[in-house]
Write a structure and sequence with these properties.
Helix content is 39%, strand content 18%. It is an alpha+beta fold. It has a domain of 135 residues: Transposase IS200-like (Alpha-Beta Plaits, 2-Layer Sandwich), CATH 3.30.70.1290. The strands form two sheets. Strands 4-5-3-6 form a four-stranded antiparallel β-sheet, sandwiched between helices. Strand 1 and strand 2 form a beta hairpin. It starts with 11 loop residues before the first strand and ends in an 18-residue tail after the last helix.
Length: 201
């Protein structure tokens, strides 16, 4: 069982880099974070231009949908498709499973990661620990593995998070995480993808 942590390490609702976040110990969270070069700046700018004409109430949802679609194209250095990097990231996810969070589902894509957890600790610190653990290792082995990580930074700052509303949302989110490689054309079934909690191997 995860050890109890007082809620003073959780922020509740807050904004960071213009994105809303909800950080609490009693909610399950789906977290997405991506490589620094996974989305070109001109793409991000065009998404924001296009969203100006959308109703404000739907902008965040549309932003995430369009960003996810671009991420699935697998742009950038794709360092996470290297088996050694993916293995180190998995080690990072598992290090504090059962301590700072319960790891419920995950999928490592070539240029981004989806994770579902039940946090028992500050969400921002959890994500930072994953990034730091993997980033230091990847930069140290950049040349040997030919990763071509740009500008000395593996990860894009920040992350997206969505809290799970109910049981239906839970199963839909797990399905989305596990089927992301299928949707991106990387495999025919979720169970074939090695770097996922759905892997059947």
């Amino acid at each position: 069982m995860p050890h109890a942590v007082s809620d003073d390490v959780h922020k509740g609702w807050y904004h960071s880099r213009r994105l809303p976040h909800f950080d609490a110990s009693y909610v399950q969270q789906v977290i997405t974070f991506r490589l620094a070069d996974s989305l070109p700046q001109h793409v991000l700018r065009q998404i924001e231009v296009d969203l100006k004409s959308a109703p404000e109430s739907t902008r965040e949802h549309q932003r995430r949908q369009r960003t996810d679609a671009w991420l699935d194209l697998g742009l950038g250095c794709r360092a996470l498709e290297n088996a050694e990097v993916a293995e180190v990231l998995l080690e990072g996810l598992l290090r504090n499973d059962g301590k700072r969070y319960q790891l419920l589902a995950w999928c490592v894509m070539p240029n981004h990661v989806h994770v579902m957890i039940q946090p028992q600790y500050s969400l921002a610190r959890i994500v930072q620990s994953w990034k730091s653990y993997t980033g230091r290792w990847a930069l140290a082995h950049n040349a040997r593995l030919g990763l071509e990580i740009p500008a000395g930074s593996l990860w894009m700052r920040g992350y997206w998070d969505r809290f799970i509303r109910d049981e239906e949302h839970f199963f839909a989110a797990v399905d989305y995480i596990h089927n992301n490689p299928v949707k991106a054309g990387l495999c025919e079934s979720a169970g074939q993808w090695r770097w996922s909690s759905a892997y059947e191997g």
